[in-house]
Structures
1.
Amino acid sequence: MMMKVFTKEEWIEALRSIGALYKVFVPVKEGDFHNFRSLEKETIPNFDFQNSRLSPKAIVYPQSERMFECLSDNEDPEAFILKEASKEYTPQAIVGIRPCDAHAFEIVKRNFDNQEYRDPWWVQRFESTLLVGMGCNEPCSTCFCTSVGGGPFHEEYLDVILYDMGNKILVKALKDRGEEFVDKMSGGSSPEGAELKGSEILVASAWDKIMSAVPTGKLNEKVVNDLFDAPFWEEVAFACISCGICTFLCPTCWCFDIQDETSGKYADRIRNWDSCMSPLFTLEGSGHNPRDKNFQRVRQRFMHKLKYYVDKYQNGVQCSGCGRCVRYCPVNIDIREVARLMNDY
């Protein structure tokens, strides 16, 4: 298992040193928030953050993606023939991703890469992406990763894990391709005993700082219709304004819509993120909407994450415990409380 120690200045230079081999994404501070951006010459990485406002899922699953294209020129012999839009699958690395967001990719993978269905674009992009995680020294108060199969320094879904030790970064490769990534970086030195001990202290301390314990153990045994007809849904949804921020920020939401767009003689078929919290999501061509009421859409969101997914995949809930939907909901709807209601009903 390869390990290296860098000063924070050396670490940034090491990331730049592999720019010809990988497209590197790093956290960048933009106003009051951090988001992941491509490491360019003018980019200033900032690893002093709890978590990014947006999860880095868009690096693998773009918010809008051209699927097919065609010409609408009647004089062209290939007019109106859909052809796959060109795509790139160059090796890339998301550096500084939190363990919860790496876990989220594994949750989404069960939908996009399984025995029945395989999305070739998502799969190829994901397989070309290294997840270089940074453990959480100071988890957010809304985090509950330890309740859903993760942890602030959870290694299972990462290729490399980073330990922020103040003025230094300890880098530990976890998988073969992670070791190859670290080996190609310039600089760094072997860690000393005190640094290894310090990383162990960070892990133990971080676990103690997770304040939320969310019960999910009984969800699998619940009867779907009983939860669907439970009396608490209208109360849960009472304050919801259908803004959809919970699904937009969520690293495990995967719903999309497909639209055809034209410009002059060119036409594109585009896949866009969509949200079950939108009133238009289930609007049918006939004008009928089976989920036209707000509480129905709120119920759908939580039933999908905490019941339908549980029953279908038998592998936990469709949530990695990042807490974004709790932090940013403008009316304070809390998935932790809803999980308790459903689990204990």
Note: Residues 219-344 form one domain.
2.
Amino acid sequence: MPQILLLRLPAPGHEETEWLSIDEAGSSITAKQRGPLSLAAVLARSAKVIVLAPATQILLAEPELPPGSGVKLARAVPFALEEQLTEDIDELSFAIGHRQSTGRAPVAVVSRHVLQEWLAELAAAGIEPAGIYADISLMPDNPGQTILWLEGSRLAVRRPGALPFAVELTPVAEALVVAGVIPDALAESPEGDPELKPLESAVLYITREDWVRVQGEFESLGDKFASLKVQILTDGPLPWLARHRGAADAVNLLQGEFARATDYGARWHQWRTAAMLAAGLLVAHVAAAALKIHQANHESKALDGEIAQIFAQTMPTETLQNPRHQMESRLDRIRHSGAGPQYFLRTLEALSGAVSAAPKITIDSLSYREQSLDMKVSAPNLAALSQLSQSVAKRGLEADIQSSKPVDTGVEAQMQVRSPGVKAHR
């Protein structure tokens, strides 16, 4: 399954970037990480990169647009948003999303200078994003409740069926009033009575640290909501946002002059289904024929090569002559020593099959003791290590990645493969 690197740029005044490897369904493949872009670039080499940018620098709107598409629609957008813009339209970049059933289309507006800075920073780290979106555009749309997301001093709000927006203000009560979530106690109707606005039912998403900071404020505002549920983001907001990566109204900022040079989707859109089916059938036919030939002619040779590789890694002091015979002799010695060769042989067999399924992984060294195989491996990325662990697990053994560190060629890690029920050795 293709791997996606979801990368969140820091807000102004912050330096560290957050990233998370996910699959197409939005499920996490690796734990969230934080640091400079240079570390994220290691994973970006083998993944599709989706960037989330701070929404405080992006305007999200849904103006009424005339019928049409393409260049005609793009020219109409700046005039439709004229009253909401404070900068010269020549200094702004306009991106348009998919037109909704209502006839409206979501639009994202960002300063061309800001977007150029983001792209330059990513390029300097060797990262080419497939898309850049406002981070709040991945907030879920709940038909029956208002979604709130508080992070630091920024309050993001998404009402049912509407685009999200953000307010940067403290204290929390003032931000909620400005956002129109709770009534303003000082506002009065022309008759002198307080405005009777229905109270909102809301769900608040917040990190544990921010909740500790503002819990008292929200508890004092309990009567300002019809209901308020609190969802603690124990791993931060990034895994939560990742689950909603496919939001229909999320707008990719990389359009027009900022579109990827390799993105020819619009040119062959009407032919892509037929082309993909034809290519798939051709690839399947060629692959099936090639597989049969390969299995018939090279299976024995490949197996001998794997035996030779494992023998050289596990017994580097012995001269390589007849690896298969030498391995059998060593196993026979283990059998007579009472060390349980059946476990050693089974572990090697499972590891050999798992490594064959992940050809880009290299075993640098390994040792065996007490039904456990400790090894040092090199891989192009963390996803490949995870794939190796899963492959070993499918063969009935347990595999743990005990430590890892980025290197020039990808990732270097210490792993342990052991029989079920055997305690991990350190």
Note: The chain has three domains: 4-138+250-263, 146-236, 299-418.
